[in-house]
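Sat 14:20. Reprocessing the chain from the morning session after the first attempt stalled halfway. Input below, unchanged.
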Amino acid sequence: MIDGQPTVLSLTDAAAAKLRELTAGEENPQLGLRVYVYSGGCSGFRYGMMLEDAPTAEDNVLEANGMRVYVDGRSIDLLRGSSIDYVDTLMGAGFTVNNPNAVAACGCGSSFRTADSAGSPGACHH
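Finished this time. Tokens:
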């Protein structure tokens, strides 16, 4: 729990280790992982992630497995209960989201819809 709020999302040990590797040597104490959801993809929503220098006024600042995570207010309900993992397979390596709110996803693995909302479905591009 952060600030009395239930856990919004978690990072697996593999994801946290990869983030520590990516941020090694960075001296900015505000550096964190931005996780967000936006309309698009074949199922309606897509995930986005990037390293961010500092949170914005609209962000929820979370801590997951020792890492700072920034989630904007629009994305937080769509991500509630999600777990972010880092996988390295023959098909490629990258961060993945296990989202209990997703009731459907397309083959690309980065697009989903929830029971309440499907966003704006489009083509499934990588």
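The two ends are 34 Å apart (CA to CA).
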